[in-house]
Amino acid sequence: MRRARAAGLALAALLFAPHAASAQNKGEPGQFDHYVLALSWSPSYCEAMGARAEPAQCATARPFAFVIHGLWPQYKRGWPENCVAPAPFLPEPLLRSMLDVMPSRRLVLHQWRKHGTCDGNDSAAYFATVRRAYERVTIPEAFRRLDDYRMVSPGEVEAAFRAANPGLAPDMIAVACDGRRLTEVRICLSRTLEFAPCPEVDRRACRAQRVAMPPQREGQDAPQRTE
């Protein structure tokens, strides 16, 4: 069981890692240029991982649509990670408070250790910034719920996000895919959470012509966010 879970986590890291192409060295807390807010299309993760998916995210009565993968401090080229090791303790109430938008305990812990420790603030301040970043972005109405498979072009999804978020330019957003499925939308934000250009992230965008967006679970009401 432990081996199977470890293998599942390794696969998830490959499918949904921020920048799997190149590893970065340990950085200094607070020393970065901007953020990347990664919004994961949860049904793609659940379908790709199958039985190895996080139960809280994929086997509950409430389906999820776009959820937070992470808020990642970035350099203009590259990014810091694991800036404090071991990472400071993450209080249980704080962890639980994030599960409505990051529906996996392991995800919250992993993001704090790998990326949150590079923010330069304590865990409460970092996750408050994560939530503010999420609330800064409007999810297009067309992608708040899907009841059936939908084939989309990355450009179509990007255009919908740009239309829903005035000021979001083409070089501030990237759509990611695993070759078959749309996996994430990544939006670049300044340290004050204004939309910001990030050519390096944009260059790693999905190059597929069309990708699938799997549906949420049928017959259930998706969690709704108050705008």
Provide a descriptive summary of the structure in words.
β4 and β5 (182-189) form a beta hairpin. Mean pLDDT is 87; it is low at 1-11, 18-23 and 218-227. The chain is built from 8 helices and 6 strands. It is α+β, with helices and mostly antiparallel strands and 227 residues long. The strands form 2 sheets. A 4-stranded antiparallel β-sheet has the order 2-1-5-4. A two-stranded antiparallel ribbon has the order 3-6.
Radius of gyration using CA atoms only: 17 Å
Q: Considering DSSP H and I runs of 4 or more, what fraction of the residues is helical?
A: 25-40%
Which runs of at least 5 residues are low in confidence (pLDDT < 50)? 1-11, 18-23, 218-227
Q: Structural class, from helix and strand content?
A: alpha+beta
| Shape type | globular
Mean pLDDT: 87
Q: What is the number of strand segments? A: 6
Helix run count: 8
The spatial strand order of the largest sheet comes to 2-1-5-4
Largest sheet: 4 strands, antiparallel
Distance between the termini: 41 Å
Per DSSP, what share of the residues sits in E-state strands of 2 or more residues?
A: 15-25%
Helix and strand sequence: HEHHEHHHEHEEHE
Helix and strand arrangement:
Blueprint lengths: L1 H15 L17 E8 H8 L5 H4 L7 E9 L17 H6 L7 H10 L8 H14 L13 E3 L1 H11 L8 E5 L4 E8 L9 H5 L7 E3 L14
Antiparallel strand pairs: 1-2, 1-5, 3-6, 4-5
